[in-house]
Write a structure and sequence with these properties.
Blueprint: H1 3-18, H2 31-51, E1 59-60, E2 74-75, E3 78-81, H3 89-96, E4 103-104, H4 106-122, E5 128-131, E6 141-148, E7 150-157, H5 164-170, H6 182-195, E8 199-206, E9 212-220, E10 225-232, E11 243-251, E12 259-266, E13 270-280, E14 286-298, E15 310-326, E16 330-347, E17 350-370, E18 373-388, E19 396-409, E20 416-426, E21 438-440, E22 454-456, E23 458-468, E24 471-473, E25 476-490, E26 499-508, E27 513-522, E28 533-544
Parallel strand pairs: 1-8, 3-6, 7-9
Antiparallel strand pairs: 2-4, 5-6, 8-9, 10-11, 10-28, 11-12, 12-13, 13-14, 14-15, 15-16, 16-17, 17-18, 18-19, 19-20, 20-23, 21-22, 23-25, 24-25, 25-26, 26-27, 27-28
Amino acid sequence: MKYWLISLPVVLLGALTSNAYALPLPQAADPAGRERDLLRREQTLQERRQLQQREEQSVAPAEVVGDPAEGPSFVLNSVRFTQSELFTPEELRAIVLPYLGKETRLSDLNRMVAEINQAYKGKDIYTATALLPKQDVTGGVVIIRLVEGKLGEMLVEGNSYVPDPYVRGWLTFPENQTLVDINALESDILEFNRVNDARLQAELRAGKDFGLTDIVVVVDEPLQNNVQLFLDNYGYASSGENEVGAIYRRQGVFTGNDRGLLYALASDGNQAFTAIYSAPVKTSRWRLGGSLAINQSEVTEGDFKDLSVEGDSTSITLDASWLAISTPRFWVNALGSAMHSNSATSVLGEDISDYKINKLNTGAQLTWLGSGWQLSARQLVGWVSTQNQSANSGDQSFALLTGDMSGYYRPGQSNWYGLMQMDYQYTNEEALPGAVSYSIGGPTSIRGYAPGLISGDYGIQSSLESHYSGLRALGGDLDPFAFYDVGTVYSKNPTQTPQAAGVGLGWTGVKGFAVNMTYANALATILPDQDDWVFYARLSWEWGR
């Protein structure tokens, strides 16, 4: 009888239970780490899509165009204006002085009127205009009418589930038909857009009565229901690379301005479910939310597949953000979160780890944008406490610094554009549990390496991508790109610095179908039996209404 076949699992179990670091299990055996990687992966994919969305002008003023028709010339001796509350006589005199005493045609008068209108805009006043009424010019005297518009009413259009009172609550609406403050209106709209998922744009429209200007606020709402189904090979080799998943997003769950998300994923040895909810706190610029994540994993391939290596984890997170600073090109969000996680791993039915983890985060996110570029950075300070209930010792309490940065750049009207991403983690603590360790590798990290292949206590990674847009094939848009990834991980093991380079192709087609493919070459050898090339692909279908 081959007793060694029976004794081998027993020996391995003894080694694993006596020292959790004596024999490293595959990453898929750590459910908390797996749960964290899944959430980070989908967040990274979402942030890459958002980088390509540009903020548009929030207020669209109506342009005044003069009649360019020519007429007879005359010497302009004087210009008279109707009463103005916005210009001093000296300001108006400075505009018309270059035209006085000269031979003048209708085109010259239109040019002068345009200069007055430009002066209104220089005062950030878009509801006032200078008009050249039809008249008989006598003695070289011209009359210019100044129509300094007053505020009529505010109209909200385009919204189906975002409540009118909620939109109006964000916007300053002066009473008694005062002049419109365009700067204040733009500031209010930007604050709304940076806290909410819906987007506002204001238009100025002639009111019911002469001299009145209405503010028309157009609400661009995201689809209230959005479903995405996907099939990919982003998974872990030890629990099944092929995955199938679904994401359901709902806008206006309870209040019309909140949102919810359900995420489910399954592979041969892994099942994950996440529920997320977030809502603004009225018009305070605060947003509060929470999430529940559940993960169950089992090693189904590799050297440990016969040892019944299983794991499960549950985490609850509460988070808050506050728009602290908001300018047209720069804004800052203050961030905070609290997380509690339970995670257990067993071999042959015996627990080798049973962690309770608590984590508090505070920090800020900065976003800075310009014409054709955007830069975002986030810095968090965390306090972590861990307790391994399956061991007599090993409790840890430590500080953790984490941060990330992303950038987008398109030169002028070029079809070329670039993406940049970076993230890091730092701590003085050693031998961190999987839920808070630093892991790289996979379709959104160092892409030449399998997910979870490289992990440690702290590290840094960055990615550069060059894209080309404007191509079409099979009825859809093509997005070819080349990339370079590099990172470094530090732990008790030797420092590892993986690098990868490769090419990718995105295709967004008709009826909601999309394909994303990446072919990456590992430029540094981390493990002797690692693959030199890694191919990732995701097929997705999206539907919304």
